[in-house]
């Protein structure tokens, strides 16, 4: 049972335009959400996160939106740059009560930004 | 600082062979994790260690064992490799109650 789903395996956008990556989850116990970016032959790197008590978090060109009632989150990249071309993973965690988080990842979306 | 390092970077095994994947971190983080990444399946947690001296199963632990050797090192062992264990393996670390995890560069393992 895939608790975190990224339904679009790939997305292609023009440089300078907005990229919107989507993620859906089914587990209502998830309380914290993260986006990771991964280049080929490298490990994933943390990009941005959001707590369930918020509906939006911004960091420069990156904004994550959370719709708890729909169990949906999205990552907006504005403006998109060719260096943003990578695989983006959505991840979720239940509320932490002890040290050691257990993240559940989506399948990933390959973003390609064309010059 | 090297962050999270993994050895080896690549490995080819025959079915039934054993091997140990090594992970070391210099970030002074308490928690360490092993994931595998397969096409179309994202990253799946194999085992994790919330702190030195403890280990717990993740989503896909069958066929693997782990050892948290000390705070810095967390190894993953395949006792009898199977073709289904062909994958890219990532080690990650996390600090205290932070949700964020920091990943190593990965080990690409092929079992023939």
3D architecture notes:
The complex is a heterodimer of chains A (115) and B (112). With 115 residues, chain A is mainly β. In chain A, 0% of the residues lie in helices and 55% in strands. Chain A has strands at residues 4-5, 10-14, 19-25, 30-38, 45-51, 56-59, 62-67, 72-77, 86-94, 104-105, 109-114. In chain A, strands 2, 4, 5, 9, 10 and 11 form a six-stranded mixed β-sheet that branches. In chain A, strands 1-3-8-7-6 form a five-stranded antiparallel β-sheet, with no helix packed on it. The model of chain A has no long low-confidence stretch (mean pLDDT 94). The model of chain B has no long low-confidence stretch (mean pLDDT 94). In chain B, the strands form two sheets. In chain B, strands 2, 4, 5, 6, 9, 10 and 11 form a seven-stranded mixed β-sheet that branches. Chain B has a four-stranded antiparallel β-sheet with strand order 1-3-8-7, with no helix packed on it. Chain B has no helices and eleven strands. Chain B is mainly β and 112 residues long. The chains are: A mainly beta (115), B mainly beta (112). Chain A binds chain B through residues 4, 6, 9, 32, 34, 36, 41-46, 49, 89, 93, 96, 98-108, and chain B through 4, 30-31, 35, 40-45, 48-51, 56, 58-59, 90, 92, 94, 96-106.
State the gist of this model.
With 115 residues, chain A is mainly β. Chain A has no helices and 11 strands. Helix content of chain A is 0%, strand content 55%.
What is the number of E strands of chain B? 11
The span between the termini of chain B is: 36 Å
Give helix % range of chain A.
under 10%
The amount of beta strand of chain A, in percent, is: over 45%
Q: Detail the poorly predicted runs of chain B.
A: none
Strand content of chain B: over 45%
Structural class of chain B: mainly beta
Order of helices and strands of chain A: EEEEEEEEEEE
Please give the largest β-sheet of chain B.
7 strands, mixed
Mean pLDDT of chain A: 94
Overall residue-averaged pLDDT value of chain B: 94
Shape of chain A: globular
| Beta strands of chain A, count | 11
Distance between the termini of chain A: 38 Å
Largest sheet of chain A: 6 strands, mixed
Listing every helix as H and every strand as E from the N terminus to the C terminus, the arrangement of chain B reads: EEEEEEEEEEE
